[in-house]
Amino acid sequence: MFINGLGLIGASMAKIIKQTDPTVSITACDVNPQNLTLMKAAHVIDQAVDFTQGATNADVIILATPVKSIIKSLNQLAQLKLRPDVLVTDVGSNKTAIVDAAQPLVDRGIHFLGGHPMAGSHLSGSQHSSSQLLAAHTYFLVNVNASQQQISAFKGLIAAGQFNFQSLSAIDHDQLVSLTSHLPHALAFTLINMIDQKINAMGIDPGIPAGGLLDTTRVAKANPTMWASILTSEPQTITDQITDLQQQLEQLKTMIKAGDEQALKQMFTHANQIRNKMEDLT
Amino acid sequence: MFINGLGLIGASMAKIIKQTDPTVSITACDVNPQNLTLMKAAHVIDQAVDFTQGATNADVIILATPVKSIIKSLNQLAQLKLRPDVLVTDVGSNKTAIVDAAQPLVDRGIHFLGGHPMAGSHLSGSQHSSSQLLAAHTYFLVNVNASQQQISAFKGLIAAGQFNFQSLSAIDHDQLVSLTSHLPHALAFTLINMIDQKINAMGIDPGIPAGGLLDTTRVAKANPTMWASILTSEPQTITDQITDLQQQLEQLKTMIKAGDEQALKQMFTHANQIRNKMEDLT
User: Do A265 and B225 touch (CB under 8 A)?
Assistant: First the structure.
């Protein structure tokens, strides 16, 4: 099997595959040779290859680069002579664009299964990879034309991840991921910059930040290049959700200005319940 | 000395005072007799008293109830014959309203020092109190008419808290606390309810939430009654800040729609730096 991209997620996937079955042979390609050297020395991959060599010989191809590169790789794959039984899958966060880009491959009868393991870190690079980073989290599957047998085999290949697999449509996936990941990131980046501007304007020492502020803004430590790419890769979904949030904040302001403590208490109690239910799932 | 309100913060303050000097005698009053029984049994307070008895005999009065009760207590204190050397202080999150309410006392020559230890928890009640909850955090001081000697003596009384004391004006305090605490809470409550509504509308299983979402929304576990009271106690500051945030989100949408990855990357890089600096302070 072949992994294109040995960054944080690609290398973590490789570790999970080796943990599941150490006899599986993994070839890999990365723009950064250090990732390949590191993971080869750690016996996580068996061989560093170029993209064409890796792709044409593989029974499973995992595309584990940023979304825009995954789309380029899918275009490249459509030009190559792949094994007829190959399963092509990916780990990208944008499934509608990726499923669209997989169409030429699918038209040639190649099987494509969209995938997205739901975990990450503000760290990046194979040196921070770990089978534990993804383990026991949700793994979304957006199937295009893979057989049930291929899907089962793929789940078996990463069994050590003990994933919570969830199948859904590309559109629902993108809405959900935008809501639960992109929107919180957009908010955290915006909030932290606004707080900084206002404190500078006041010219005061804000002291040591409270734990609540640190928690709310932890994702603002995430990689700027990656997030600039994610948010612009599918602008409609995230900007529509930001508009929704602006409207909900408008309603909140109305309740606060009206001094409607009962309505606020009811809204916050509902939020309490939802948040506690979420935590119970982990 | 006398503490009015033995909830999470009041009882934690009592524990810090006893830890600093076990010979200090603490009287306390609380609407919930269980808090008094618990803290007396734990030797955190020496005697449960009624408000008038506690206030009239004390050399230091700490008002540690919710903001609206602190304001009522200040009105009550203005009617009582207090010791002439008494220092009245509080732990409330809204300093302009509290300093205003202290004016009748100040007019009588009583010394008032506004205070606000910057830590908390989604838990409440004396049973969750701890000297560690507040320890080593920022303690804001908004002085009205206390002498330097009284301020030093008060700092000495709670020395075991190893606080990072910061003095500032009531207006700056309220702007800062609204920015760094009220706004993140308002956002977290709003975001979690919006996510819940959208997922219900999609009718899908969202799987196990990622760590980033859990962090961003942790403060939505906070006490609904307390937060409905906090946000309505000074509506102008928080609603102005929500309006600012809505405008900053509008700018973010413009950058995303324009596909301006460079501008986004620059903004996110700045957020990275600010967030990392904050963490370095803890």
Answer: yes
ipTM over 0.95: no
Inter-chain residue contact B198 with A179, CB threshold 8 Å: yes
Domain A2-168 falls under CATH 3.40.50.720: yes
3-state DSSP call for residue A61? strand
Name the residue of chain A whose CA is nearest to B281's CA.
Answer: A208
Q: What is the interface size between A and B, counted as CB pairs within 8 Å?
A: 314
Residue carrying the six token digits 């934690």: B12
- Say whether A272 and B181 touch across the interface (CB within 8 A): no
DSSP type of residue B219:
G
d(CA A72, CA A77): 9
Query: Is A206 part of the contact surface with chain B (CB cutoff 8 Å)?
Result: yes
pLDDT digits (tens, 9 = 90+) for A204-225: 888 888 888 999 999 999 999 9
Phi, psi of B2 (to 5 degrees): -130, 130
Helix, strand counts (H, E) of chain B = 14, 8
pLDDT tens column, B28-77: 999 999 999 999 999 999 999 999 999 999 999 999 998 889 999 999 99
Dihedral over alpha carbons B64, B65, B67, B71 (to 10 degrees):
-90
Distance from CA of B280 to the nearest CA of A (A): 9
What CATH architecture does domain B2-169 belong to?
Answer: 3-Layer(aba) Sandwich (3.40)
Candidate CATH numbers 1.10.460.10, 3.30.450.20, 3.30.70.1400, 1.10.3660.10; the one for domain A174-280 = 1.10.3660.10
**What's the pLDDT tens digit per position in B133-169?**
887 789 999 999 999 999 999 999 999 999 999 999 9
Q: List all residues of chain B from 137 to 196 with a beta carbon under 8 Å from chain A.
A: 137-138, 140, 164, 166, 168, 172, 175-176, 179-181, 183-196
